[in-house]
Amino acid sequence: MRTRNLYRLLWLVIGLVFFSCNNQKNASDAFGNFEADDQIVSSEIAGKLLNCNFEEGTTLSKGIEIATVDTVPLVLQIAQLTSQKETIQARKQSIKTQIAVIEQQKKNIGIDIARIGNMLKDGAATQKQMDDVSGSLEVLNKQISSTRSQESILSGENEVVNTQLAQLQDRLNRCRIVSPISGLVLERYKRAGELVGQGQSLYRIADVSTLNLRVYVSGDQLPHLKIGQKVKVLIDDTATKNRSLEGTVSWISSEAEFTPKIIQTKVERVKLVYAVKIKVLNDGFLKIGMPGEIKFID
What's the pLDDT score for residue 108? Predict the structure, then answer.
């Protein structure tokens, strides 16, 4: 009887050792949760939000227009500057006409100067007559110079208006809010009809086609990991089974978390924890916040 009990105890010990070794062999190397690289989209223009083509849970494509800020104030300013530009162009045309008239007057005086010069040689005209027409020519030259300076000033004003129009057109284009990436709307902060300020957040979006499993490894595990390394990712499939996926190490923290102030021994260094990101292709089953595990591939 005693011998039989000893055999039972021996087999129990052997079973426990086998179970412990097998359990250790199947244990995961690190644990964590899935997260996404999200992006907050903001309004670049202040105003009333008109149409909003997004809701939480909506999948958006990159470049699609998802909202518009009221453009009426900007359109009115553009119309005002356009009218001002047309006025400047009309004034410039008037100045060109004035210059053309003065140029014609110069030609007429030139003819008079030539005629009086011939008459002066024959004694049929006086020097005063020559001085008068020469003086008139100088006056016309000064008028042309003055008129051309006005044209230059108008050209400068026209350039200022063009710059203002370009700025307003740029702001008008920014009233169209487009999705910067393709992804899933995670949170919505504004609705149609509400006022938004410049830089105010509208929604948060993330590309969930690929998720990051953020896990934490100890210091003694860190030498076994490197960027680009393949690992096995395990997620819950059923109550008793796991689903296996392939992941790639995309980031390893350069600093330990929960670091003791004084680290002296190797045992203490092993207690350090480092964050690691594992990039995993999402087949539609993965969700943000879902727990996951990894195993190093030998």
Answer: 85
DSSP characters over 71-115 = -HHHHHHHHHHHHHHHHHHHHHHHHHHHHHHHHHHHHHHHHHHHH
* Stretch among 21-35, 45-59, 107-121, 232-246 having the lowest mean pLDDT: 21-35
Output the pTM of the full model: 0.64
Average pLDDT along the chain: 82
Pairing of strands 183-188, 59-60: antiparallel
Q: d(Cα 186, Cα 225) in Å, to the nearest integer?
A: 32
pLDDT at res. 13: 39
Task: Give the three-state DSSP class for 186.
Answer: strand
Cα–Cα distance between 88 and 190 in angstroms, integer? 43
If we measure between CA atoms, which residue out of 219, 203, 213, 201 comes closest to residue 268? Answer: 219
The runs of H, that is alpha helices, within the chain are: 2-26, 72-122, 127-174, 266-270
Burial 9-30 (b: 16+ CB within 10 A, else e): eeeeeeeeeeeeeeeeeeeebb
Cα–Cα distance between 29 and 5 in angstroms, integer? 38
Contact 196, 49 (CB under 8 A): yes
| Winning range, highest mean pLDDT, from 140-144, 253-257, 272-276, 278-282 | 278-282
